[in-house]
Specification:
The protein has helices at 3-17, 34-61, 89-101, 125-134, 147-161, 166-178, 183-190, 194-206, 209-215, 223-232, 238-245, 249-253, 256-268, 271-274, 312-332, and strands at 66-69, 74-75, 107-111, 119-123, 138-142, 280-283, 289-296, 299-304. By secondary structure, the protein is α/β, with parallel strands linked by helices. Among the domains are: 58-146, Conserved hypothetical protein from pyrococcus furiosus pfu- 392566-001, ParB domain, CATH 3.90.1530; 165-268, Arc Repressor Mutant, subunit A (Orthogonal Bundle). The chain is elongated and about 150 Å long. Residues 67-159 form the ParB-like N-terminal domain.
Length: 345
Amino acid sequence: MKRKDMLRALLTSTAATEDPPAPPVMSERRVGSGAVRAMGLDLDRLAQDARKAEALERQAANGQLVLDVDPALVDPSFAEDRVARTGDAEFRTLVESIRISGQQVPVLLRPHPEAKGRYQVAYGHRRVAAAAELGLPVRAMVRPMSDTDLVVAQGKENAERRNLSFIERALFAAELEARGFDRPTLMAALSAHPAEMSRYLSVARDIPRWVVRAIGPAPKAGRPRWLVLAGLLQADGAPETVRHLIEQPAFLAAATNRRFEMVIAALRRSPEEAKHGDPALVRAPSGEILLRLERDHLGLRITAVEQVAPGFCAFLEERLPDLVAEFHSQASLGDGDDRRDPSGA
C-alpha cells in the first residue's frame, strides 16, 4: 500500500470512531439601526466635549485662557492702587483706543471669593472701566488666586507698566499693610527694597488721605516733594489752609500737578504774603510753570524752575544786567521821576 493510501485509511478509521460533528451554528449577524448609530455618535461627541472642557479648565487654572466677560460681573480689587482711575486724560485716551482698535491686552481676574458667578480684578481696572463705558465685553484671563497672589500680581503689573505715581504706590503699600499683609508681601507687590518700602509707608502715614485725594496722583511730584508737603502739613493751621484752598473754583479746575503746586504754595506763604494773593505764574510752552512771581512788603521775588527749561536760569542771569540798563535808559527819558536802582545802588 502506498504511503498516501495508508495515511488516508488511518484518518478515515479515526474519524469513524468519533462522534459525528455537530451541525454548524450560524453566527447571528447584528445590523445596527439608525438610532444605535446616532447614539454612538452622540457618545463620541460627549467624550470630545469632556476632553475640551478639561483642557479649558486646565487653561483657565493656568491663566492661559482669554475669555469675554461682562464688565457688570467684575468687581474691583480689595486693594486700591489709584487715587483716580477714570478722571484723567490718559483714561480718555484709553477709551478712544479701545473704541477704535479693540482691547489689545487682556486683564487678569479671579473668581470672586465671596460672590458666586462674579469676578474680581487683579489688574486692568481701567480697561474694565473702559469696556463698561463702551458697552463691550472685557477680554480677560481668569485664574484662581489667593489674596496674596492677587496683590502681588496687581503690584507687579503696575511696576512693569510704570503708570503709578509715587503717592499712589505709597497708598497701595499702606493699604496692604493695614489689611494685615506682611512686609515681604508688600515688597514683592511693589518690587521695592526695605528702605524704599519704609519711605512709602512713612509718607502715607504723614499725609491725610483727604489731602491726597483732593490733589490727585500728581505724577510729576516725586518722593522729595511729597516729604516737603508732609512737613508743611505739621504746621499749626495747615489743614485748615488746605481745606479752604481745595474748595476754591481755581483749585477744582486745575490739573493734578497744578493742584500739588497750589497746596505747596499756600502752605509756604506767611500770613503777610497771603494778603497779596496767589503768585503770578509764567508757563513754558509745555504748560509747566517756568517762573513764579511773588510780591511781598519787600518787593518782587522771582523763582525760576530750572528743570522745566534747563539752561533758562543761566540765560536769565546773563540778561538781567541788560534789563537793568534798559530800565535806567527809559528812566532817563522819563519825566524826571526819582526812580531808584532795584539793587539799591
